[in-house]
Write a structure and sequence with these properties.
This protein is an alpha/beta fold. It has helices at about 5-10, 15-20, 35-50, 65-70, 110-115, 130-140, 145-155, 160-165, 165-175, 180-185, 190-205, 235-250, 275-280, 280-290, and strands at about 30-35, 50-55, 60-65, 75-80, 90, 110, 210-220, 225-230, 260-265, 270-275, 290-300, 300-305. The chain has a domain at about 5-140 and about 235-305. The strands form 3 sheets. The protein has a 7-stranded mixed sheet with strand order 6-5-4-1-2-3-9. It has a 3-stranded antiparallel sheet with strand order 10-12-11. The model is unreliable at about 1-5 (pLDDT under 50).
């Protein structure tokens, strides 16, 4: 189990950037998750650091541009947890069992890894989105209006987690200190904000044509679940463009260009009981199944994807 003082400690922004200097570099190529969380990260990273979008990964399929293939060893995987050592990544899932951290995650900028959180500490995991972690890392405070605030806090349902898990949220605001969290979350834990999300934000998101699925956690005030948004780059290019435009217009950020995909690489996604992985040993399980990416999504479940090789599936 994680020691109490670890959760009472604070992460130092400069130390994190020193360990992962690429997180503050300009004009990097990146792959992002094929959902709302990845899309809003893409718009932010392009606007602030001029990062160039090279493709998407939906935990089953990789869509990648020619530039991404050419610079595959230097790609950054955003809102994702990938295992190959050459893969730099930033994400926020739990990846450890009993303190066992696969060596491939040494290049993963993940707050849960930094605090040595494991599947035993699921209730203490980082509760917010990759986007908000990036804000903290860069010391970036967005210009807020009603719509931009809702769009930002819709990422990984951060507004709902702030309502539902207040104690853990406050702990992480302390861990990620030296940031105006109070400004970002002001008036979020209210019936009015939750009503605006359902009555004003979600109709705007539905207008983009995005596939919207109900989440699992009900709202605190009206008992309605939030929505999760996924895209399929095979046929959702227009949806991605409309989401980029909506986010860009509300925040003032300049969206990236949607790349032309040179390759579409199919993998296989699986779900397994965590107890089964524990019996076999995490590293042995990952090696045996040639796992490319995985996440512990609950105290009892591990989701993973394999492309049939222990190395990156992105090749010339």
């Amino acid at each position: 189990m994680i020691k109490k003082q670890d959760l009472d400690s604070m992460l130092n922004r400069n130390d994190v950037i020193q360990n992962f200097p690429w997180i503050a570099e300009k004009e990097r190529l990146f792959i992002t998750s094929a959902d709302y969380d990845g899309l809003i990260c893409a718009v932010y990273l392009h606007h602030v650091l001029n990062w160039q979008l090279a493709g998407f990964y939906d935990l089953s399929t990789i869509w990648i541009s020619d530039a991404g293939i050419h610079d595959r060893k230097d790609l950054i995987w955003v809102d994702l947890n990938i295992l190959p050592k050459q893969g730099k990544a930033i994400g926020g899932h739990i990846i450890s069992i009993d303190g066992e951290h696969p060596s491939g995650f040494e290049t993963s900028c993940n707050p849960n890894i930094m605090l040595k959180l494991t599947s035993d500490n699921f209730q203490n995991k980082y509760p917010f989105s990759t986007l908000l972690f990036l804000f903290w890392l860069h010391g970036y405070s967005p210009k807020l209006n009603d719509l931009s605030k809702m769009l930002i806090l819709q990422s990984d349902a951060s507004w709902l987690k702030f309502q539902t898990y207040p104690e853990n949220s406050k702990k992480w605001m302390n861990i990620l200190s030296d940031y105006p969290w109070d400004q970002l979350f002001r008036q979020v834990n209210t019936k009015r904000f939750e009503g605006n999300v359902h009555n004003k934000l979600y109709p705007r998101l539905k207008e983009t044509g995005a596939m919207m699925n109900r989440g699992k956690i009900p709202g605190k005030f009206n008992n309605r679940s939030s929505y999760q948004i996924q895209v399929n780059p095979d046929w959702d290019t227009d949806v991605i463009y409309r989401l980029f435009t909506l986010i860009g217009n509300a925040t003032g950020w300049t969206p990236p260009k949607i790349p032309r995909f040179e390759k579409v690489i199919e993998g296989k996604r699986h779900k397994i009981a965590l107890a089964s992985v524990v019996r076999r040993g995490l590293n042995a399980f990952l090696k045996e199944n040639k796992v490319f990416s995985y996440a512990i999504t609950s105290p009892k479940i591990l989701n993973f994807t394999s492309f049939g090789s222990s190395k990156t599936p992105v090749t010339k």
